[in-house]
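Dear Dr. L.,

I hope this message finds you well. Following up on our conversation about the binding site, I have prepared a predicted three-dimensional model of the protein together with zinc ion. For your records, I am including the exact sequence and ligand specification that went into the calculation, followed by the structure tokens. Please feel free to forward this to your student if that is useful.
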Amino acid sequence: MREERLIKQIMTCSILLLCAVTAFSGYVKGVTPAEGSENTLPEGAGGTPSGESGESVATPAVVPTTVASFPITPEPIMSPTGLPEPSEQLVRVLPEAWSDIRGAETTAVYDYLTDKTIVLEKREGYENAVLTLEELPVLRQLRVTVSGVMGEPIREENVKRIAQDTCYSGTPPTPTPTATPVPTKAGEPTQGLKPGMQPTPTPTLSPEDPFYPWRNDLIRVISSEEEIMDDGALTQTLLLTLDRTYVYRVYEDEWNYYISLVRPKDVYSKIIVVDAGHGGNDAGTSSAGSVFLEKTVNLNIVLYLKELLDAHPDICVYYTRLNDTKPSLKQRVNLANDLEADFFLSVHCNANVAKSLHGTEVLYSSLQNGWTGMNSRRFALICLAEMNEQVGLFDRGIVARDHNVTIIRDAKMPVALVETAFMSNVSDMEILAQEQTQRNIAGALCSAVLKAYEELEEIGAGEPMPEEQGMPSGNPEASSGE
Ligand SMILES: [Zn+2]
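The resulting structure of the complex is given below.
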């Protein structure tokens, strides 16, 4: 009903009708709308009838997508009407960057934007256009679809990025290998880039670097697909690869669409990343004769775990995958780091040439042993205790594996990689193959997450001690790879 009213209002003022696309719910759990903030306009927002004059309105059309469609924190930064407060919590757009934006002098959207905002300039024929946002967080991508356009598509020069005091537009420069050499770890042989690969820009560029002026740009790559539909209207899909993963809010006025980027931790008080190991062309390990593949067992367990975690809307869970895809290890750990997640939980199965090896072990990072508060070792112990309690396979203990497992080494939060059972062991595999076992594992991991949060509240978040470089690995127990 609200939508009907909305559509009437489109006649006089340009209004955003944004569908919070559930494609993203493939990655983020929960689609519970914020109370009083449906995906239509909240009362009084944007819909102020402007009468015959067609005069623009004072209140921006606002659809806070992410906040409206994703799990809501106990203290959402939303007003009861669904409009986000022009809050002091947000670092605001700086006027010097804002002055480059069309309609800057008059639009009221300004009050709602952060200092990291993507502005898509409308061209002719956007009166009835509909914008849809789909988030692909593990890829740091946003897919923006604008349909119903009776005119020209948005060009790269119409994609503006306000980042702190700078307004960027056009094609982001592509760093060359010479400008941003691939960092290698000391003692590691330098590996050349595969043909066609480009190194990721290093986060800290020196002022002499040719890409220094773009160091704060929010967008790395822009690509566009356009399609003319049967009714003659244009549908454009812009795929934006960003510098990291954010939470997004979308606004609209007659001149522009605004995608305001928000730090996830400012929206969700509890964030965890759950990772089903392997996927796609990487099957992981397997049972004898490849009857069971590790990637599938990992995914099954994570899907059962999702069912359980969905019942806890206070915890915002990002999944690295919920189907048979293969994010890179870097993408998985980047996601957790981008989100400043409280915990990073990765689900795997074990294997060894010694087929008698069996049981559950949990890998952790001893680099965090010196942290105050919650650390990887503690989180791993909680996971192992719940696995012992609810699954009951042989207890192999916890194992420090930061020296050779990327996601464990690079995670900046308590991380646990649960090796649920040995697929190379006949007895373990028989048990692991059963759906009930996989559900029990999911139950154990869900309990572990809840217990870890309880403990986190008691002892506080883990942080490196000053001058602490981590303690040496205490338990280099022989084990297989991931
Ligand atoms: Zn694995």
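In brief: Residues 277-278, 284, 294, 348, 482 surround zinc ion (CB under 6 Å).

With kind regards,
A. P.
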